[in-house]
From TrEMBL:
Residues 11-178 form the Nitroreductase domain. GO terms for molecular function: oxidoreductase activity. CDD domains: Frm2-like (cd02140). GO terms for cellular component: cytoplasm. One of its GO terms (biological process) is cellular response to oxidative stress. Signal peptide: none annotated. It is found in: Cytoplasm. This is Nitroreductase family protein.
Length: 200
């Protein structure tokens, strides 16, 4: 069987050599992110995914916050120098997407459907993962590189304060994106027998 989706998925890779040499405008990228997330499924159509798309100095601020937070816990100067160099590759991109979960909706559903209460947090994570995958692939389709980072909850308070985010929006991941300045490395896979089972 042919699959345009699978062909497109091969373009979705973790790109760490990012630049700001994109032809798309911030408005165009913002629109792409919005439409992609709106069409991504969530349990009970709960729409728990939230996204903040940052450009320019605002995007840089995210990685300055990460650097400040890590400097407080990484005491070895050499180790921090390597960390700071890694963060610089994210900061060099065109922008950053913050992915968050609306915990108010999760808690509302827990009360509304007590029989499923234990599941809603997990289902929100599944919805978030689907949205992240979809956005990442949509960016790749447009020749935009990205990677997915997780410096939360270390940076949660500072991010919320810096960008005046609602308290109930829980930060879950950060996606720096930009022009692809160097390709991703080789992708390896486990043997199919370790991953899949066909039962007829």
């Amino acid at each position: 069987m042919n699959s345009k989706f699978n062909n497109l998925s091969t373009k979705r890779r973790s790109i760490y050599a990012l630049g700001d040499n994109l032809s798309q405008t911030p408005e165009e990228i913002f629109s792409l992110v919005k439409e992609t997330i709106k069409n991504s499924p969530t349990a009970f159509n709960s729409q728990t995914v939230r996204a903040v798309v940052l450009f320019g100095a605002k995007s840089d601020k995210v990685w300055d916050i990460v650097a400040d937070a890590l400097q407080k816990i990484v005491k070895d100067p050499d180790a921090f120098a390597k960390t700071k160099a890694k963060l610089a590759t994210f900061k060099a991109g065109y922008g950053t997407i913050l992915f968050l979960t609306d915990t108010a909706t999760v808690h509302h559903l827990e009360k509304e459907y007590p029989s499923y209460a234990d599941n809603f947090a997990n289902w929100a994570e599944q919805g978030l993962g689907g949205a992240q995958q979809a956005v990442w692939t949509a960016l790749a389709e447009n020749g935009i590189g990205a990677s997915l980072q997780h410096y939360n909850p270390l940076i949660d308070d500072a991010i919320h304060q810096a960008f005046d985010l609602p308290e109930e929006w829980q930060l879950r991941a950060e996606m720096p994106f930009g022009s692809i300045e160097a390709p991703a490395g080789e992708k390896t896979h486990l043997d199919d027998n370790q991953l899949f089972k066909l039962i007829k």
